[in-house]
Amino acid sequence: MANLDLMQDVENSEVHVNMYFMGLEEGALWFYGPLVMMASLSLVSAFYFIVNQLVNIVSFLLIRLEPVKTGRPNIHGKRRTIALALLVGSIPFYLPYQFAYTVCCIVQAVVVIRSFALSSHNLRDSIAKPSHYQHSTGYQVALDNYKNFNLSLLLLLLWILPVNVPVLIVWLHNFCLKWATPFSSHHNLLAILPILIVVQGNVNGLMISKPGSKLTIFCTKFMLIYFALYSLIYGTRHMFWLHHLLDLTCAWFTILLVDDWWNGRLQNIYSIRKEEASSKLH
Questions:
Q1: In the predicted structure, residue 138 carries a pLDDT above the cut 60
Q2: In the prediction, which pLDDT does 282 show?
Q3: 39 Cβ neighbours under 8 A, 6+ residues apart
Q4: C-alpha to C-alpha distance for 221 and 200, rounded to whole angstroms
């Protein structure tokens, strides 16, 4: 009876839990939050520096070992189309979307390396041929924008990757044991489809134009600010929701791509190169 009364008292008692920031409730630990925040910002900066340097090194080696092809990559082969169709088609039935997310991270890393190599190659050509510098300035600016956007997206994908890796490890373990465990929530195609579309667009060299209308500017800023604030306030307690926020952000980028295509503003980094090459002939 004593244990039952104790359980009832605990059940009926009002328990206050701080759901914000890091759940700090003691006033004496006021310094802990800003300290951890500074450490987190330092970690983000260090991670950016490491990834940026690694990409620069790999792109430099790529330029030295193999000539950079400035044309559109061969992305419309049957193998790539069949592989993408199989990947998308198998997510609702067998593969978890975390597997497709890992593939997107690898593909995006390749896109970033290629964009850095193209930017460095074009900059070297501009320095070596001063007469062509004015013609290649616009293309260099477009390359820098394309490179920075893809690098930012890669950093977001890599930061969210640890959230998805545990599920992928469990799936691989069950796959090795030939034990099919149904995870219905992990076969949600909408949780990965916008990310797939954006990454595929980056592979094709598509560039999202700068939002022009007040509505698109407001929605873009709102998505990014909400993503940042949610990560700061609730990120440590609801880490899995960060993946869905990234998915929503990519869905908004997809809407911007469709809007650019509908209004004839959709730019391609390889088409810009061809247009400038044709303008030099005139």
A1: yes
A2: 45
A3: none
A4: 23
Sequence-separated contacts (24+) of 159-163 with Cβ below 8 Å: 159/47, 160/101, 160/242, 160/243, 160/246, 161/101, 161/102, 161/105, 163/239, 163/240, 163/242, 163/243
Measured CA to CA, the distance from residue 85 to residue 104 in angstroms comes to 14
**206 sits in which H/E element:** strand 206-207
The two structure tokens encoding residue 90: 């198998």
Q: Residue ranges per domain, the chain? A: 53-281
- pLDDT tens digits for 195-206? 999 998 898 888
- Tell me the CB-side half-sphere exposure of residue 163, using CA atoms within 13 A: 20
Closest CA to 91 of 3, 195, 184, 202: 184
Smallest CA-to-CA distance from 115 within 84, 133, 139, 88 is with 139
pTM over cut 0.85: no
275/255 Cα distance (integer angstroms):
26
Place of tokens 């990757």: 161
Output the six-digit token pair for 160.
Answer: 């969210």
Contact 267, 201 (CB under 8 A): no
Tokens 């890091």 sit at which residue? 22
- For residue 20, is it left (φ>0), alpha (ψ between -120 and 50) or beta? beta
Cα-Cα-Cα-Cα dihedral sign, residues 182, 169, 99, 227: positive
Neighbours of 268 (CB within 10 A): 17
Q: Are 118 and 64 in contact (CB under 8 A)?
A: no
